[in-house]
Design brief:
By secondary structure, the protein is of the alpha/beta class. Helices cover about 40% and strands about 20% of the residues.
Length: about 325
């Protein structure tokens, strides 16, 4: 097949915004596509097989379109657009200005894909939002961002984050240390998300004042939570009774996010996932949204998407 060549002229902004510091974004493009990409000042020259050149051209134009929204493009932006193009999906969602969820001390948080945007919009108009999808699609991260934004805007007075400690069967007594030391390993992903969005000293103050609570699911029983955002992570590992218990904790002026990946259920084989049951029996209730994210919405390292797809294609044993 004969090669073709295309050229893009970069105008109206510093080329480094598109190409990245030390051409890091350009290197990502070269890693993904079998083509030659040369940057010469304000000119980008692409040479290779016609279809590949066209894909790169579309990716670069999409990234240029994102620049007024993002100000500075990073590896996540580049990988997201590449995923959209190589999956023949619709254009990446740059979103209106009101799609910004949260301004943090480390930057702006907003949906990065069409699926994430739909998830965000659904959470604004529903009191309970389920997000089902594989690792890396931003299910918990985006839920935490929405909750933190509501807390900062004084729309709620507290945030409760929880997940089932399935690996220890919710019986943590045999582990060394006090209760906090026992449960912290299971709750680390929730801590990680919070620490990105809230300055360390503020985060510690919120924890000390119980404005933010991060607890195992077993410790939610018997509570009624008003004026709060409730976030259940790894919901695929709940039983039917645990899921019902969590959903019925919701009080006045409260909202809930329930996030999980139904392809990674760690429950005993004879036990049905409470998440699977919930999305079946609650799907037609007004005020409850069920959002499905896919590998197209993965915004972690590009290998995550490939790993998920490889496991999806693996034949059953």
């Amino acid at each position: 097949m004969t090669n073709t060549k295309r050229e893009i002229i970069i105008k109206g902004f510093d080329p480094i915004v598109l190409l990245g510091v030390r051409d890091e974004n350009l290197k990502l493009l070269r890693q993904h596509f079998n083509a030659t990409i040369i940057a010469r000042g304000e000119r980008l020259i692409i040479e290779g097989q016609f279809e590949v050149v066209e894909q790169i051209h579309h990716v670069l134009n999409e990234l240029i379109h994102l620049i007024p929204k993002r100000k500075q493009l990073d590896a996540t932006d580049v990988n997201t657009v590449i995923n959209m193009e190589t999956n023949h999906h619709e254009k990446v969602y740059s979103g209106p200005d009101d799609s910004i969820i949260l301004f943090t001390h480390k930057g702006v948080i907003k949906p990065r894909t069409v699926g994430q945007e739909a998830y965000y919009r659904a959470s604004l108009v529903n009191d309970i939002t389920f997000a089902i999808g594989p690792a890396g699609t931003g299910k918990t991260y985006q839920a935490v961002a929405v909750a933190v934004a509501a807390l900062k805007n004084h729309e709620i007075s507290r945030i409760i984050l929880t997940r089932p400690a399935v690996e220890a069967g919710e019986r943590l007594g045999f582990l060394p240390g006090d209760m906090k030391e026992k449960i912290d390993p299971y709750l680390a992903p929730l801590y990680d998300a919070m620490r990105f969005m809230i300055a360390p000293e503020k985060f510690k103050a919120y924890i000390d004042q119980h404005v933010i609570e991060i607890v195992p699911l077993a410790y939610m029983r018997g509570r009624t939570l008003d004026d709060a955002y409730l976030i259940l992570d790894e919901a695929q590992n709940t039983t039917d009774l645990q899921m019902k218990m969590f959903l019925t904790r919701i009080g006045v002026n409260s909202k809930a996010f329930i996030n999980g990946d139904i392809t990674q259920i760690d429950l005993p084989k004879h036990q049905r996932s409470g998440l699977c049951t919930a999305i079946e029996i609650l799907k037609d209730i007004e005020g409850i949204a069920i959002c499905e994210l896919t590998t197209i919405d993965v915004v972690r390292h590009p290998l995550v998407k490939k790993i998920i797809e490889a496991y999806d294609e693996k034949p059953e044993a």
